[in-house]
Amino acid sequence: MQGRYDPKTIEGKWQAKWEEQGVFSAHDDSEKPKYYCLIEFPYPSGQGLHIGHIRSNTAMDIVARKRRMEGFDVLYPIGWDAFGLPTENYAIKTGIHPREVTRQNTDNFRRQLKGIGFSFDWSREINTTDPAYFKWTQWIFLQMLKKGLAYKAKMMINWCPSCKIGLANEEVVDGKCERCGNETEKREKEQWMLAITKYADRLHDDLDTVDYLEKIKIQQRNWIGRSEGTTVKFPISNFQSPNKSEITNPGSQSPNEPQNTDSKRQTEEDFIEVFTTRADTLYGCTYVVVAPEHPLVREQLTDSSEQITVSKEQKARIKNWEEVAAYLKETKKKTEMDRTAEGREKTGVRLDGLMAINPINGEAVPVFVADYVLGDYGTGAVMAVPAHDERDYAFAKKYDLPVRMVVMPHLTDKKNPPREGKKTVERDTIHALVRNPKDGKFLCLEWKNHPWTTFIVGGVENGEDVVGAAMREVFEETGYSNLKYIETLGGKVQSEYFAAHKDENRIANTSALLFELEDDTRERVVEEEAAKHSILWLSLDEIRNREMTCAELDFWLARLDGKDGAFVDDGTLTDSGEFSGLSSSQAREKISTKLEADGNGKKVVKYKLRDWVFSRQRYWGEPIPVVHCEQCGIVALPESELPLELPEIDGGYSPTDTGESPLAKIGSWVNTTCPTCGGPAKRETDTMPNWAGSSWYFLRYIDPKNGSALADPEKLKRYMPVDWYNGGMEHTTLHLLYSRFWNKFLFDIGVAPTSEPYQKRTSHGLILAEGGVKMSKSKGNVINPDDIVSDFGADTLRIYEMFMGPFDQPIAWGQNGLVGSRRFLERVWKLQEKLTTHNSQLTTEESGLTTENSQLTTGEQEQKVKTIDSLLHKTIVKVSEDIEAMRFNTAVSSMMILVNAIEREGTISKHSFGLFLRILSPFAPHIAEELWENIGNTGSVSLAAWPEADLAYLVSDTVKIVVQVNGKMRDSFEIPADASEDDLKTHALDSDKVKPYLDGKEPKRIIVVPGKLVNIVV
RNA sequence: GGGCGGAUGGCGAAACUGGCAGACGCGCUGGACUCAAAAUCCAGUGAUGGCAACAUCGUGAGGGUUCGACCCCCUCUCCGCCCACCA
C-alpha cells in the first residue's frame, strides 16, 4: 500500500531526478537515429506562462517522449524569444533595464515550465537577447548585406503622430496605433530591407517538398501570391488621338489599324508599363490607370514636406495638373481607415492631354490616376478592362467610361450536349426578348416537334446587323411587326449544343436584344413557321419556373435585372482581331507571345509578397552592425567586432521626437570610426525586429554554446531538419516564412545543411477564456497555471489540456473538467492495489514473457486477466495512432475506458500494468514514474521501450452483425467471423425482432456488408 | 469581398473509409457508506409518449444522391480565424 496520490511530492521528486540524471538530454554522439521536436520558443512576458503554451508544449512533449521510448535520440529544446515591445514598454514605464525585466521573466517562465514536467533538454537553453546569441543574428545580417539581400530603401511606414514613432504593421490594429489608439498615417522613411522576394519562387515551390498541414501551405502560397502574367507597354501620346475620335463604344467600333506614333514619342522610355494576368482581355482595354505613387504623376514625396515634386515637363503635359495635384494630396491625407471605410468607392482623375496607345491595336485610350491601383504591386499601373474586371467596372460605371466585352462566357448546354462525330457549325445568333409593356410578359415560342420553350431565336445573316436580324426573326416567326428596340443585353454569350432538328453540333454566339411591343399589329405567319411552333406570353416568374430551352437564360435574367457586372471568368474571345475565337488561356499565351515578339511586352511572374522591412526605431533589439561613413557610405562592421552590444542608457528608453531609435541619443555610442578608412562615422541606430532572432533559433539549439561558429556543421548535419514543428496558425505568414527564408539563405552560403528547415509543421488551436473570448489581463480572465498545478497537480493539468477537445481547434477554457482528469489519475493510482502476478496465457505464449508465481490461478481470474489484456493491447494501438495524428483527446479517453474496465474486472497483471504505465507516461509522466518505481522497476519509465501491441489480442473469432430494416437498426447478433453472406442473411431473416417489420412480405432486396451488417429492404 | 475552419445532449465532446448517433469526461438524479458532510463507490441520464417491454422523433435550416447520410452533392443561416482594391 503506497498511500494517497500526492502530486506535490511525486512531481517535485521526479522533476529533480530527471534533471539530475539528464534523462532528456540529446546526445550529439548517440548511435541512435535523431528526432528533432520543436515548439515555438516563448516570448517571456511579465504575465507568465499562458495556459495555451501548456497545451501546445504538452502535445509536442508527448511526441518527444514517445519517440524517446521508440529508440530515438530526441532533441526537444527550449529558449526565449526575448527581444520585443512589451518588455521595452515596461522599461519605458518603470525605468528598469529591459535586460533585468527579461531576466525576471525568464526565471519565472523557467520555473513554471519545469513545474509542468516538460522533457526539454535544459542544457541547450538559449536567449535571443544574449550577446553570445545575437552575435550570430548580426553575423547572418552581414552575410545578407554582402550578398546584396540587405539594402536601404525609402519606404512608406506606419507613423503614429501621437507617439511620434514608426510602427510595424503588426503594431497597427484597424488603422490605429496599438499603444495609444490614435489613427496612424503613412510616412516615408529610410528603412533596412531584406530581399525575401528574391526567394519568393523557392519559398512557394519548395512547399511541395515538405509535410505541412494543407491549410498552412495554402496560407503561405496565398501570402506569397504568385501570379503569372504579362507586362504591356502603352506608349504615351501627347495628343488627343489625332486620327480618330475618342475610344468607341461597343457595337459601333471600326476596325483598328496599328497607328504610327513615332513622331509623337519623346523618348523611348515614354510609355506606361502595366501588369496584367489577363492578356486575353487586352482588346477590351478602354483606359489606363496609374497609381498615385506612379512616376508619371509623382517623382518623390519626402517626409519633411507636403510638396509633390513632378518635373515641369510632365506638369506641362498634363493639362489639368492642378486638379491632379489636388487629388494626389487628397489621397495622401487619407489614412488606411478612410480608404476602406468609404466602402471602397473608387475615385480618380483623368490626366488630360495624355493618351496611351494600346500596342495590340494602336488604339488611343485615356489615362487616369486612381488610388484603387496600388503603387507597390506589379508596375503600379493597370490596363483597365471594365467588361472583365470588377474594379475597373465599378470605376467605369462611376466615370461613365465605355465597357467593351471581348470575352464571351462559354456554356455547354447540359440538356443537349454536343455529340461525338457530328459536324460543328458556328454562327452568330440572336435571342429577341420582346416585352409587352402592358403586362410585362415576354413573347416565347412553344415548339411542336420538340419539347422546347424558347425566346424568339434565329441566325444573323451575312451583312445583317443584330437588331435587324432580331426584328426580322420576330416578324417571321410571330408576325409582330411594330417593335421598339430598347437595348442589347450585354455582350455575346457562346454556347455549344446539339441541334437535333439539323443533326449537327452548333456553336452559337448569341446576342440578346430587348424589345418592347409598340402595338398588337400582327401579320399572318407563313404556314411553314406556324407549323413549327405556337406563341406564348410568359411573365418573368413563369420563365424562371419553366424549363426554358435556353442555356444563356441566367445571363439574360441577370442583365434584365441590371445585376450584371463584369464577366471575370475565362471564355472565348470575340472582337479581338486575329485572336477572336480562341479560348482565354490560348489567347493569353498567343497575345503575350506576340507582344513579346514586337517588344511591347513580356511574360513575367509577380508576387504579392513584399520585401521585409527590417528596421525598428527601438532600443530593445539587435543593433544593426553597420556604420555610416562620410567617405565610404554604409560600411559593415568587421565580423571580429561582433557582437555589437547595446549601450547602457541613462535617459529612458523612449524613441526620439524625430522617430529615431533611442540609440541615436547616445553620442558616445553613435560616434565611432569607420572600419575602412578610419575617419569619423556614425553607427546605425535602427535595431532589428524581433522576428530576427526567431528566424534561425532552431539551428542554435543544435550547438548553443559554440563561440566560433553559428553551429558546428557536423552537428547541424546530424540534427537538421526539424522533424516536427508545432506552432500557432498566427505565425504561418510571418515567422514561418521568415525562418524558411533565412534557412534557405544559410543553405545557399553553405551554413545550413538542408534547404528547408522544417520537415513537418502542424498547428494547435488557441485556448480562449470562458465565453470564447481572448484571455487578457485587462479583462481579468487569465488563468494562472500555477494555481492549477498547486490545486490539482501538473499531471492533471496535462491530461486535462489534452482531453478537453480536438487539439487543432480553438477551445474555451472550462475549469469544470479538471476534476475528471484528477479522478482519472486517482483511479490509476489505486490500481496498484489490484495487481496480480498472473499473466494471461496468451501473453506468456505469444510474447515469451516470464510467468511469475501461478499458484493462485483460477479459471475465472485468468479470464479476467485475459479480458483486460485484450483491451490493453487495443488501447496500445489506439494511443499510438492517436498520438501520431494529434488526437490526444481520444487517446486519453481510450485510457480512461481501460482503467474503467480494470476496475470492473478487479485485477490486472503486474506486467500489463507496466505496459499501461508506459503509454500513460507521455501524458502524465510523474505519476507514471512513481507507479513504475512502486511496482519494482528500476530506471525511468521515460526511457522504457514503447510497447508494441500483440496482434494475437486484436483479432476476434466472432463479429457482431447489425441487422437493419430499411436502414434502421432493429437487431444484432454475434457470428463467427468467417460466416458466409448466406449465413448472415439467413440469420438476419430469422431474427424475431426483425420479423414484425417484414410483415410476412418477401424482402425486395438484402444488402450484406460482410463483418458489419445486413440491411433488409421491404 | 476572398481563403480556411466550425455548428452533434444541460456542458466539453466521440463516431477513423457512407453502416448501431451521443464513446469518454463534466454536471444532474437516485442509492450505498457516514451522526452528518466531503470524498469514494453503485445505478440512471438526447427528446417525446408509455407502469413497462417498446415506439416515434433527433447531428444549424432546406433540398438531393443512396438500401442506408453527422459523413457525399447543391442552396442558405450563424460563428471563429486569416487576408482584404494584388490587376
Care to describe what's here?
There is one protein chain. By secondary structure, the protein is an alpha/beta fold. 32% of the residues lie in helices and 21% in strands. It contains 31 helices and 43 strands. Strands 11, 12, 13, 14, 15, 16 and 28 form a seven-stranded mixed beta sheet that branches. Strands 18, 19, 22, 23, 24 and 25 form a six-stranded mixed beta sheet that branches. It has a five-stranded parallel beta sheet with strand order 2-1-34-35-10. The chain is flat, with a radius of gyration of 38 Å. It binds one RNA strand of 87 nucleotides through helix 7, strand 12, strand 16, helix 11 and strand 37.
Features:
alpha/beta, single chain, 21% strand, RNA-binding, six-stranded mixed beta sheet, seven-stranded mixed beta sheet, 1018 residues
The end-to-end distance, rounded to whole angstroms, is: 62 Å
DSSP, total strands: 43
Computed Rg: 38 Å
Helix % is: 25-40%
Question: Which stretches of 5+ consecutive residues score pLDDT under 50?
Answer: 240-268, 300-307, 841-856
Mind summarizing the main beta sheet? 7 strands, mixed
Shape: flat
- Please, what is the average pLDDT? 87
Q: What structural category characterises the helix and strand content?
A: alpha/beta
The percent range for strand residues is 15-25%
Instruction: Tell me the number of helical segments per DSSP (H or I, 4 or more residues long).
Output: 31
